[in-house]
Specification:
It catalyses: guanosine(46) in tRNA + S-adenosyl-L-methionine = N(7)-methylguanosine(46) in tRNA + S-adenosyl-L-homocysteine. This protein is α/β, with parallel strands linked by helices. Helices cover 34% and strands 16% of the residues. The chain has one domain: Rossmann fold (3-Layer(aba) Sandwich), CATH 3.40.50.150. It is globular and about 45 Å long. The relative contact order is 0.15.
Length: 228
């Protein structure tokens, strides 16, 4: 099945993989991969073991620090990690194997296609943490947050579900706020400045987030709730 490029414009591969990482890509990833060429299940919980109560999605998980921590902390929740970079996949597969984590499924492609494939109201939370900001004005159409993806998240999140966004790029934070605030389907949960200046409770800092802090860049932590 051919897929359009959608919102994905990045590199798929960086540094050469080590031998064991390449082996995990060849042998473990196929067991965890979501194949959107197949019909979507009635509920995404069907992709996981019995007893999975709900499913969350993290888009562009990078090195996997946040996704691994969340999956470990919530064993009865299913997690889908979307990451088009082969090196990011290799890193998280190494951690999944080492920690014997069974509640993560992976999608090595365009998140917009995954959102279009998934059944309605099938996710309780969507996380987008330190996405590529595409800072040049002519590239803004390549940012993940667009009116079309906000509409897709509206379809996938039930009332009370959340979209969480983290970025140390002020312009992208303003862009995200503008897109979510003009949607009648989402409410920004911040009541005071501290609500977006500090991470939410039990947030696991990513490698990129720690680097940004060391270099003096402050991130914003934005939470939006799906309205009835």
């Amino acid at each position: 099945m051919a897929h359009s490029r959608g919102s994905f414009f990045g590199r798929r591969k960086g540094h050469k993989l080590r031998s064991h990482q390449a082996d995990l890509i060849d042998n473990l990833l196929p067991h965890l991969s979501i194949d959107i060429a197949l019909p979507a299940p009635a509920a995404l919980t069907e992709l996981f073991d019995d007893g999975t109560g709900n499913v969350r999605l993290e888009i562009g998980f990078g090195g996997g620090e946040h996704l691994i921590a969340e999956a470990h902390a919530f064993p009865n929740t299913g997690f889908i990690g979307c990451e088009p970079y082969v090196n990011g996949m290799a890193k998280i597969l190494t951690q999944i194997e080492a920690l014997n984590i069974g509640n993560i499924r992976l999608f090595a492609g365009d998140a917009a296609e995954l959102l279009a494939w998934a059944p309605a109201r099938s996710l309780t939370r969507i996380d987008l943490i330190h996405p590529d900001p595409w800072p040049k004005r002519r590239h803004w159409k390549r940012r993940f947050v667009q009116d079309a993806t906000v509409a897709a998240m509206t379809r996938l999140l039930p009332p009370g579900g959340e979209f969480r966004f983290v970025s140390d790029i002020d312009d992208y934070c303003a862009w995200t706020l503008a897109h979510l605030m003009r949607s009648p389907d989402f409410a920004w949960l911040a009541e005071r400045a501290i609500d977006w200046l500090k991470p939410w409770p039990n947030y696991t800092m990513t490698r990129y987030g720690a680097k940004a802090e060391r270099e003096g860049r402050k991130a914003a932590y934005l939470r939006f709730r799906r309205l009835p």
